[in-house]
């Protein structure tokens, strides 16, 4: 139904028509977080093809991941800028509930959480956490990576590795470890609060 005025046309849009034009948000996936952290860790402009290659995630899945993050308001509408404060708040308040994990069996692997280089000087522990890797030099309890190619991505990007280890400290760490990880993550994101 359209009402005409000399200057304006008022349109009635039915809700079912509006929903047809919106993409459904079926929830964030664990690798969405890794995509966002990779963008934050990049010191220069990034291209989707580069993200795909460095993370071992297909171009189409990177595109879908960015769409989910845009709908969740974690990236700008043009999908070029990560809203770091929103991402930080999600990691601080929602991460361990949305992407929980439990330490598993003892395996060889790459250190993560409090065992990773970024945190190991702050905490003394006989208990180590690792991402499973048969070539790993450290034995510890297995922590499930957020996605299958995370180990490779972390080995090729030290800044990303640090952020992923901090994220794991928030997912499985004790309160002191979580607080330190959040403090260091805030520094990595270059967030300054007055």
Q: Any descriptors?
A:
single chain; 194 residues; mainly alpha; 3-stranded mixed sheet; two-stranded antiparallel sheet; 10 helices
Task: Report a brief summary of the structure.
The chain has 194 residues and is mostly helical. The chain has helices spanning 15-20, 30-41, 48-55, 59-71, 84-93, 95-98, 117-120, 150-155, 158-172, 175-189, and strands at residues 2-4, 9-11, 106-111, 129-132, 138-142. Strands 3, 4 and 5 form a 3-stranded mixed beta sheet that branches.
Q: Classify the secondary structure makeup into a structural class.
A: mainly alpha
Helix amount: 40-55%
Q: The biggest beta sheet, please?
A: 3 strands, mixed
Proportion of beta-strand residues: 5-15%
Shape verdict: globular
| Count of alpha/pi helices | 10
| Low-confidence residue ranges | 15-22
Rg value = 20 Å
How many β strands by DSSP? 5
Distance between the termini: 51 Å
Mean pLDDT: 87
Question: What series of H and E elements makes up the topology?
Answer: EEHHHHHHEHEEHHH
Description:
With 194 residues, the protein is mainly alpha-helical. It has helices spanning 15-20, 30-41, 48-55, 59-71, 84-93, 95-98, 117-120, 150-155, 158-172, 175-189, and strands at 2-4, 9-11, 106-111, 129-132, 138-142. Strands 3, 4 and 5 form a three-stranded mixed beta sheet that branches. Strands 1-2 form a two-stranded antiparallel sheet. Strand 1 and strand 2 form a beta hairpin. Helix 3 (48-55) packs across helix 4, helix 5 packs antiparallel against helix 10 (175-189) and helix 9 (158-172) runs antiparallel to helix 10 (175-189). The longest helix has 15 residues, at 158-172. The model is unreliable at 15-22 (pLDDT under 50).
């Amino acid at each position: 139904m359209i009402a005409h005025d000399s200057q304006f046309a008022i349109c009635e849009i039915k809700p079912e028509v509006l929903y047809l034009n919106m993409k459904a948000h079926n929830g964030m996936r664990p690798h969405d977080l890794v995509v966002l952290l990779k963008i934050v860790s990049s010191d220069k402009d990034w291209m989707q093809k580069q993200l795909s290659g460095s993370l071992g995630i297909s171009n189409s899945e990177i595109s879908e991941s960015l769409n989910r993050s845009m709908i969740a308001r974690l990236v700008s509408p043009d999908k070029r800028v990560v809203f770091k404060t929103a991402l930080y708040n999600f990691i601080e308040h929602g991460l361990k509930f949305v992407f929980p994990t439990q330490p598993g069996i003892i395996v060889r692997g790459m250190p993560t959480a409090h065992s990773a280089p970024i945190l190991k000087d702050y905490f003394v522990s006989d208990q180590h956490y690792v991402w499973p890797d048969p070539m790993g030099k450290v034995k510890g309890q297995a922590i499930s990576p957020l996605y299958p190619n995370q180990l490779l991505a972390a080995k090729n990007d030290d800044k990303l590795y640090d952020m992923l280890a901090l994220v794991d400290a928030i997912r499985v760490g004790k309160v002191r470890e979580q607080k330190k990880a959040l403090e260091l993550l805030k520094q990595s994101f270059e967030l300054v609060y007055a």
